[in-house]
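Can't paste images in this forum, so I'm doing it all in text. The chain is below; anyone willing to post the predicted structure tokens underneath?
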Amino acid sequence: MQELLTGRRRLPGFSADWETKRLGELGGFLKGRGVTRDDSTGGDLPCVRYGELYTKHADHVRAFHSWISPAVAAAATRLKYGDILFAGSGETKEEIGKCAAFLFSGEAYAGGDIVVLPGAQASPIFLGYYLNTGPINRQKAANGQGDAVVHISAAALAGIQGQFPSVPEQTAIAAVLFDMDAEIDALAAKLAKARDIKRGMMQELLTGRVRLCMTIVGQPERATQNRVLDLFRDELATATSATGRTAPATNVEESVLSPGSPRGSHTGRINAALYRLRTEADNHARGLYGNNQAVYSLLRYGVPVKIEAGKVTETVHLIDWDHAGRERFRHRRGSDVARGDFERRPDLVLYINGIAVGMVELKNSRVSIGDGIRQLSNQMPMFHEWFFSKIRSSLLATTPKGLRYGTVGTPRSTS
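Text version of the structure:
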């Protein structure tokens, strides 16, 4: 992380010098106002308090822990996506000015003692990481005022200098680090879930309430999955390769993503295209249906990118529809899809060039089509709505009752 954020290690495709700039050159600073601790204990409008920048948010604000009323909000500073929030007060000079990028598109407000850098001419995700690095923190500490309680002013923050790459390189760096954070979060959630399951199973097994059964399970399910994969290979002339089950399934597997035309695309263009794909898929201002429409457009018509000022916009095709036989078809079977406290394990997830485009659920012949559809709760917000932002279709199959097909947002029907 430090290597990427200081320029000691460069991503492929980038070589331009980094520019020295003061934070004040990125935009003008504002001061949060109008929200005290007592004000943030009730209401239904989200608010970020300065203390939470130290205790609740790492480099980015993606969740809320305080809420205010409309009356309090009327006198408060409203936040916008991409704002950079600095803690204007703290207990020590070493931590003063801790910051986080605000990555929420809805209505929210800043509490008092927060200094806001709005609309910076830079990648907000990159700034969230970079403005908490050692060289920047040392400058913030040098500008802190006070002993028992330390403060830092907007003017002091505006004078802090940093080394900034071009916006396309910022975007590429941010994409790498953001993906790593997402993987860490997923692994942490999976670990916590495994610990909870272990505690529960220990009580059941060690008291004899649950007894182990020494029979082989899962063979009929695996045989049915093999039949479906044989269908893709033999009847549809599509060769699929398997991905492992060692990690949770994701809706984009960048390690195997192989962009279509033009082959061998510039790495900077690819990184920019992937960042645009993730941004459209995870747009919280839209619902699942709107995100899926936006992703479909990028997959079908390509992703317009521009990595340098003054250059023409180019199109990166993540799937080469004119030469579909050259693309990489892969599948995952029985891999966990996990985020937060909820976990699901679809039977098969189908990928083209590392992008999830379909899901297959196989049900026992004793299960009716209607009951099978009711079990498909994966797209509900509380479960894995996010995973379906790129998936265009879901298949439900039972033997001998046939196959049902649906896209994102399809109402339940057994006809």
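The longest strand covers residues 355-363. The chain has two domains: 19-164, 188-406.
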